Amino acid sequence: MNLVAVAFLAAIGSAAHLTEVQRKALPDASTTILRKFAFGSGNDQDAEQFMWSKIAARQPQLFLSLGNNIYADEIAYEFKSITKGFDRDAPPYLLREKYQKQLNNSDYVDFLSSTPIIGVWDDHDYGRNDAGSEFPFREESQQLFLDFLGEPRDSVRRSQAGIYTSYTFGTDAKSVKVILLDYRFHRDPYLSLHPNDPSFKGSDGDNLGDSQWRWLEEELRSSKATFNIIASTVQVLPNDRWFGTESWSIFPAARERLLDVIQLSHASGVILLSGNVEFAEINQVSCGDDDAYRLTEVTSSGLTHSYLQGSGLFHFISALAYTIVNAILPWYYRADPTVHYGGSNFGQVVFDWESSPPKASVSVIDRRGRTRMETSIPATRFSGTNDSIGCAPLQLPSPGDYMVRILTVMSLFVLIFGSMIVNVIVVVVVPLQVLRGALFQTKPKTD
């Protein structure tokens, strides 16, 4: 397709509106005591939508989407992909097409009519795998995403740069603030766009941008809510993911800044929720000089697919890799290193307002309605000073032990995938060569 055609289709797609659907309105913020809400991420519009009815059956007061509401970007297997990468930008017309397909899904439409939805985007509904501020269609994508959510035309989210926002439910001792971060619109590129690019910051890059940082600091500093839920589409706490998974640890200074902001705000009952990774886990750090303050992050991903749910060779390889690394690596940010779930899942938060202090029970639930993991988080706050900030995992293996585990994983990968290649050669290539020789064998010359 030539550039003129792409530009024409993009203009049509960005100008057209998505089909209006019946939506359940958000509960009145000032009078509603939030007792239960659900959350999740990773919904492929082309996959079976089996999870929406499971979530609705639990009657949450709202659903918090942690991104990848659709998968609009595509992978191109071309020769130039060797140097330019396999991921391709999703132009506005394609984003609109994918959003419309999701809005045409009857299971999702039923869910919209019974459960209010708030949320943010991640990379695949933003428009490109792992994309940040370098994505060329970010403004168009912003409007399409907000159309998909049913955001009012006069919403501040439509006029600001980025989709970050917050909601507060309830009052006084029974209040919850939900803070939605935009990890994509302002995030610095992971890789340099051009050789010797002076604007490239490398590991010193930022995730939120100045305006969003100022907004977040004020949201937490001024918050009187008993619980403050911070929704980040990618994981915040773990920095042990050496195998390339997106997380805040790619930009260490930004991650440290976020943890500092949380502590120094002295906000009550901070809970981190995240998605993106296509499995579920609970991570935790201890903060302060006496390690008395615990900060917990619950990750739920994905709704339609995951490491252990899928078909085809790629999913088989992914499931095998997931099983190996979870059996061998220490996963020292997890509250319990052995607890994780690789099947499709969603999360649920239930508030106990009668407890002293109030508690939030956060759980991860599978497609059959079984609770796979759960943690109880009290509404406490960091009580230290500027001199006592800093967070660390609950357990930390010795460097030698960690290196041995990594080398073991890498050795197993080489052994397994090397064996696969050898088997392909023996089973496919060698017989084909023998057959070719038999069919096209050159007859010896005769005098």
TrEMBL record:
Gene3D superfamilies: PhoD-like phosphatase. InterPro entries: Metallo-depent_PP-like, PhoD-like_MPP, PhoD-like_sf. The keyword Manganese does not apply. Residues 51-352 form the PhoD-like phosphatase metallophosphatase domain. Keywords: Membrane, Signal, Transmembrane, Transmembrane helix. The keyword Membrane applies. It comes from the Eukaryota. Residues 1-15 form the signal peptide. The chain crosses the membrane at residues 402-435. This is PhoD-like phosphatase metallophosphatase domain-containing protein.
